[in-house]
Amino acid sequence: MECRVGCGACCIVISISSPIPGMPDGKPAGVRCIHLTHDNKCMLFGKPERPPVCNALRPSKEMCGDDFEYAARYLSYMEEATKP
Asked: Mind telling me which Pfam families this protein's record contains (predicted)?
């Protein structure tokens, strides 16, 4: 499955604990990544400075569903379920 153009749920909903360019402490859950454009495209996609966790996350029907709202709910559930 390919990312749904303009979704960006994973760049907003989930936390990223590793440093991101411009976000040295990572990104808290629910905070929009500063590298997400106004139309929800990642400006770091394909670049070496993109965090490994972002490179490892692959879209799937289970995670993404058919729309942003589904993806946001699913990712919120996963974020909460994996809190230490």
From this structure: CxxCxxCC (PF03692)
- What 23-26 contacts at long range (C-beta under 8 Å, 24+ apart), as own/partner pairs, is none
pTM: 0.88
According to DSSP, residue 9 is labeled G
Question: At 79, is the secondary structure helix, strand, or coil?
Answer: helix
DSSP state of 2: P
Contacts by 10-14 with C-beta closer than 8 Å and gap 24+?
Answer: 10/54, 10/57, 10/63, 10/71, 10/75, 11/35, 11/36, 11/40, 11/42, 12/36, 12/72, 13/71, 13/72, 13/75, 13/76, 13/79, 14/75, 14/78, 14/79
Identity of the residue numbered 17: S
